[in-house]
Design goal:
The complex is a heterodimer of chains A (304) and B (268). Chain A is α/β, with parallel strands linked by helices. Chain A has a single domain (6-303), classed as Aldolase class I (TIM Barrel, Alpha-Beta Barrel). Helices cover 36% and strands 19% of the residues of chain A. Chain A is built from eleven helices and 16 strands. In chain A, 63% of the residues are buried. Chain B has helices spanning 67-73, 107-119, 139-146, 166-176, 188-200, 241-244, and strands spanning 5-16, 19-25, 35-40, 44-53, 58-63, 80-87, 97-103, 123-130, 151-155, 162-163, 181-185, 204-208, 238-240, 253-255, 261-263. The mean pLDDT of chain B is 96. In chain B, strands 10-9-8-7-11-12-13 form a seven-stranded mixed sheet, sandwiched between helices. A six-stranded antiparallel barrel of chain B has the order 1-2-5-4-3-6. A two-stranded antiparallel ribbon of chain B has the order 14-15. Chain B has two domains: 5-87, Elongation Factor Tu (Ef-tu), domain 3, CATH 2.40.30.10; 97-263, Rossmann fold. Chain B is built from six helices and 15 strands. Chain B has 268 residues and is of the alpha/beta class. Classes of the chains: A alpha/beta (304), B alpha/beta (268). Chains A and B meet through helix 1, strand 5 and helix 2 of A and strand 4 of B.
Amino acid sequence: MVNVETELCGIKLRNPTILASGIVGVSGAACMYAAKNGAGAIVPKSIGPVEREGHNNPVLTEFEGGFLNAVGLPNSGVDSSLEEIESAMKNSGVPVFPSIFGGTKEEYGEVAKKISVLNPQMIEVNLSCPNTANDFGTPFALDANEASEVIKIVKENTTAKISAKLGPNVPDIKAIAKAVVEAGADAISAINTMPGMVIDVKTAKPVLHNKQGGISGHALKPIAVNCVYEIYKAVNVPIIGIGGVSTGEDAAEMIMAGATAVGIGTGIYYRGIDVFSKVSYELQKLMDELGYDSIEKMKGAAHK
Amino acid sequence: MEKPVIVEIEKTIDETDGIKTIFIKHSIEAKPGQFVMVWIPGLDEKPFAISYLEKEKFGITVAAVGEFSDNLSKMKEGDKVGLRGPYGTNYCLEGNNIVMVGGGYGAASLVLLAEQALDKNMNIKFILGARDKNKLLYIERIKKLVGEENLIITTDDGSMGAKGFVTDALKELLSKEKVDKVFSCGPDKMMKSVTELCTENNVKGEISMERWMKCGFGLCGHCCVDPIGIRVCKEGPVIDFELANKITELGSYHRVKSSRKESLEVKK
């Protein structure tokens, strides 16, 4: 069978599947559980400067084409989250890339600085949570200048590699990608969820407590593949392709669009917690079948 | 589809001391130990063990302990709630001589299990405990099911039954009788003690864990437990003693809404 190792900013992954931020990775133990089930790397749930409870339930609901979530960035705050990240790094046996957010640009810097005492190889900068506008206003990822200013501040506060997590709901994702790379991002995580709403007609109420949420799962996949394809054309940094990946074929699509690795979140619902092992195995079989002997060779194939 | 369906409340009954059972007009395919998510639109949504199960309806038992449960327990016949589930693992009946160990509200899922065990002609001993006599649930229902002689009551203050804990009664029972399997649901510390006691005595069994749940179907990760990371909503809530012995946070701490750890010492 072919080797499915991949390399992200010089960091070797045993396979290209990464636990996407926001799904399962609440604690060190939860991250370890995903790694045990095959994940090549782990991005824990985003950490902010102070404790946040997140939204009331329901925080997740399903529709015909996928899921809609608005969990609201619950976390215990960076100071008490350090032990969880440390435990994830110690016990997962795979690279762990902490995800950070802030309400202001300065807060991103503050969180990056505190997380960096653990010497993570990479930090994912969540610029694009669509579900906290009531608290934080429009996500930074929707504006090229705002996004690049956050990346600059994070860069000043860490020596870790930085991946900027972008959202799909922008007129030109290439422009945002270029801006964050110019500001110092070493990689791009694309994409976050897409804003959406599900309404219960019997009560005339949006199902999610936050009313709006982010679309994930099957419906997000073609949107994500398109964004990765566009970003790959625009910049020369590795891309973590995220959105609707739950099979080896989905992963192959993402890699052919230009991704170096793929994030998996909602796929855990569709395939079980061992979705990571399943996707890796299926990808391996598919690459054998299609005659690709490495991820590197398959990367960007759709552009040729 | 993981989306609430709107269902109607058929009736409510008072169990004891401010604890109510709400019957919902809805046919549900559930097994004892599984839980449902109940949504009050605009307010919140919480997990509940199924305590009564019939063909056309089922019941959940609610203690008014916060804003959500206050609102839920005030609901009347004809009021509507959203419903998802059933979710999670269920108890697995085995052997002929079984023991239920229920503490406080934990008796909810066990009494349903006792009904099923009775259908299989098993010998059931039911140890029911609470802080005081006003917190003891389903006394009459259990007596009818298993017979008065098989119901052992303990209260912390001695206001009914033996003064002490359910684990004292279980210890005595295990020393006297052959027990094939023990099922336990109640406060964390109690289940921890039951797990330890049965493990020492080489008796197998299951507990039903409770942790803060958000999605209920294994995606949000909020109910993952230390140090093995399993999801209480998916790999639980019912877990066997072998698995329970691996969960070091059992009886020690849990995670609050933000995910911050909180010692169980502060909660009584």
